């Protein structure tokens, strides 16, 4: 393979997770970094109400929420490390345990302070665990704590069931992939969730490593190195590392334009590092495929197995879901030979309003390292518009190495601007407590399932809100962030009553895994 070929192959490889431990320290650093509006480019903050645009500042309850997540991460990481001695029976047990360790290892980020579980915890359905961020900034900080992504963390429960991204010409849809914009296509590893896992490590606004080989270097010093070798080969880490590798891997990405792979390896050693990176992604996918992450244990599943019954309200909600509300047209509950995954793996523009609280709008100025996010020429800042799948289809260069794999798809980009992947509805209501606030849709504009259902029902019926309208989300809706390719067929005027909206919400709550069938059944 030529040097250019190796480079292209490596660019496709660079990427995964986000989380943390030294986060109590992180919270203070982040707040101080954002305190000076001139240093950060952020305006003076407004009042600290959960529904207030904080103008680039961190919410007041951030410290408490971080402390809770830190304790959870510590507990899960320690417990998983203790499992290594109990996973010698079969290869599947080893690879799944390895995948879990990789997701909860903060050492795999540039500042060794963020693991994937910071953005994806079990108790929230493996999505955002910090309520104060869900209520305000929506996106989560990376290992460089003043850098935020442009979207809400997506759940990776059931993510491995997504097919390799492909274009169905007959229906005019892209199908498959992972991420909101489908960019983890799966074309190289034939596994979208494995390629999704390879995204965050080299994304400057997530784990922030400057070179994908830094994952191999950090894993060579991990306490579970032998477990990795037992899965992917005893010679996995026979790599000659340059003397400056520690310093390079502690330098936040992106790498310099004239040195895209700053860990300077021989061709043979680069190939080994790439092999480790593939094993990294595949092990995480194996864990996500396991019953610990994708278990099919919701009340809905027990009802389908005739081991429980819906309440009257839940039953009505399911009937509406499959009929009048038209949810099942995209969030499929399965057919002959299908798993009930509650998604069709396509993409759609629902007309979701822009979310002015999104932290990305306050990253339009270079940070202390001179970095400003630039997504396919769409630079962060007040003028940023998320083009979704269309942006990915135009992506010929990416900091996280995930590119459009098919040049024939570029011409389709205008048809997919503003479209986002249809997510599974499984665990859409999973939360640690009933009062815990989750964010919904790619930009987290909605804060409850009731808001989501009401929007689907009335988007095209209620008037457009005026600035500061107190009826927003109840008696009016703001204009879409981008009305290009707007879906007008399956939502907007469903003619549901308020009681029917509530019934739909009740049904959606039956999709949370971990349901326990009551010991004594009573007629419902």
Tally of separate helices: 17
CATH topology of the domain at 3-291: Cytochrome Bc1 Complex, Chain D, domain 2
| Element-by-element helix/strand order | HHHHHHEEHHHHHHHEEEHHEHH
Q: Please estimate the helix content.
A: 25-40%
| N-end to C-end Cα span | 66 Å
Beta strand %: under 5%
Shape: globular
Estimated structural class = mainly alpha
Question: Would you count the extended β strands for me?
Answer: 6
Shape-level CATH architecture of the domain at 3-291:
Orthogonal Bundle
What report would you give on this structure?
- It is a single chain.
- With 524 residues, this protein is mostly helical.
- The protein has a domain at 3-291: Orthogonal Bundle (Cytochrome Bc1 Complex, Chain D, domain 2), CATH 1.10.760.
- The protein is 31% helix and 3% strand.
- It is built from 17 helices and six strands.
- The protein has helices at 3-13, 23-35, 37-40, 62-83, 91-103, 131-135, 192-197, 213-219, 225-232, 245-249, 267-289, 299-304, 312-322, 389-393, 413-416, 449-458, 498-508, and strands spanning 166-168, 173-175, 347-348, 374-375, 378-379, 420-421.
- The protein has a two-stranded antiparallel sheet. A two-stranded antiparallel ribbon has the order 3-6.
- The N and C termini lie far apart (66 Å).
- The relative contact order is 0.14.
- Mean pLDDT is 87; it is low at 1-50.
Q: Which key phrases capture this entry?
A:
disordered N terminus; Cytochrome Bc1 Complex, Chain D, domain 2; 524 residues; 17 helices
Short description, anyone?
With 524 residues, the chain is mostly helical. Helices cover 31% and strands 3% of the residues.
């Amino acid at each position: 393979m030529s040097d250019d070929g190796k480079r292209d192959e490596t660019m496709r490889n660079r990427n995964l997770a986000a989380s943390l431990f030294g986060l109590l320290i992180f919270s203070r650093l982040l707040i101080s970094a954002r305190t000076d509006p001139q240093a950060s480019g952020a305006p003076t903050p407004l009042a600290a109400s959960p529904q207030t645009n904080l103008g680039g500042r961190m919410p007041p309850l951030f410290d408490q929420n971080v402390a809770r997540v830190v304790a959870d991460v510590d507990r899960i990481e320690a417990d998983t490390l203790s499992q290594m001695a109990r996973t010698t029976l079969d290869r599947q047990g080893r690879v799944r345990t390895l995948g879990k360790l990789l997701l909860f290892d903060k050492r795999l980020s540039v500042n060794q302070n963020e693991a994937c579980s910071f953005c994806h915890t079990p108790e929230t359905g493996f999505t955002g665990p910090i309520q104060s961020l869900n209520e305000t900034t929506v996106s989560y900080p990376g290992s460089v704590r003043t850098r935020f992504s442009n979207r809400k963390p997506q759940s990776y429960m059931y993510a491995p069931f997504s097919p390799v991204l492909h274009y169905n010409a007959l229906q005019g849809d892209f199908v498959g992939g992972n991420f909101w914009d489908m960019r983890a296509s799966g074309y190289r590893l034939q596994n979208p969730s494995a390629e999704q896992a390879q995204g965050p490590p080299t994304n400057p606004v997530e784990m922030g490593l400057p070179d994908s080989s830094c994952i191999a270097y950090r894993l060579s010093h991990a306490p579970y190195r032998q477990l990795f070798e037992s899965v992917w080969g005893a010679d996995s880490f026979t790599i000659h590392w340059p003397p400056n590798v520690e310093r390079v891997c502690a330098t936040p990405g992106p790498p310099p334009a004239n040195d895209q792979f700053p860990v300077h390896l021989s061709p043979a050693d680069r190939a080994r590092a790439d092999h480790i990176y593939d094993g990294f992604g595949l092990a995480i996918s194996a864990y996500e495929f396991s019953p610990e992450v994708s278990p099919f244990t919701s009340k809905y599943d027990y009802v389908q197995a005739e081991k429980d019954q819906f309440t009257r309200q839940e039953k009505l909600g399911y009937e509406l879901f499959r009929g009048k509300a038209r949810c099942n047209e995209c969030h499929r509950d399965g057919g002959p030979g299908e798993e009930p995954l509650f998604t069709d793996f396509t993409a759609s523009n629902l007309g979701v309003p822009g979310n002015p609280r999104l932290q990305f709008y306050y990253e339009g100025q270079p940070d202390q390292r001179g970095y400003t996010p630039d997504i396919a020429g769409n630079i962060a800042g007040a003028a940023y518009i998320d083009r979704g799948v269309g942006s990915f289809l135009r992506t010929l260069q990416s900091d996280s190495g995930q590119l459009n794999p098919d040049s024939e798809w570029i011409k389709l980009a205008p048809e997919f601007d503003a479209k986002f992947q249809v997510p599974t509805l499984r665990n859409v209501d999973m939360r640690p407590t009933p009062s815990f606030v989750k964010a919904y849709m790619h930009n987290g504009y909605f804060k409850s399932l009731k808001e989501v259902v009401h929007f689907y029902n009335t988007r095209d019926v209620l008037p457009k809100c005026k600035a500061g309208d107190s009826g927003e989300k109840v008696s009016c809706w703001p204009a879409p962030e981008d009305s290009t390719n707007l879906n007008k067929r399956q939502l907007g005027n469903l003619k549901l009553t308020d009681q029917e909206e509530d019934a739909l919400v009740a049904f959606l709550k039956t999709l949370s895994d971990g349901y326990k069938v009551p010991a004594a059944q009573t007629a419902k």
